[in-house]
Amino acid sequence: MIPISRPLLGEEEVEEVKRVLLSGYLAHGPEVEAFEEEFSRFLGGRVRAAAVSSGTAALYLAYVATGLQRGKRLLTTPFTFMATASPAVQLGAEVLFADIDPETFCLSTEAVKEVLEREEIDLRF
To answer: Could you identify which of 39, 52, 61, 73 might form a hypothetical disulfide with 57, taking C-beta atoms 3.0 to 4.6 angstroms apart as the criterion?
Structure first.
């Protein structure tokens, strides 16, 4: 099983972080620009990639991009960092919670089904 709280870092990762820290560019600079360009190429060059300051900022942008707003709902798990829900609240959306499967730590399909039924959400298209 993959541990949920132990990073898997080797000497190569440590050396790269050290190199970047010693470069003097902690938030912007050539490493960030190179990452954005490489990620854009990975996506086929169809979009411009933009690095952001945190996972919270990334979620906020993702929620905006998918149209999450006041009157919409986001379903997630409470077994997460608060940043999963806080950008949705900031956008005025309602956050619904469903529990996880204790074996996988992923959203439980049964718990999701219960929330959808309780909230009378019909996902048929």
So the answer is: 52
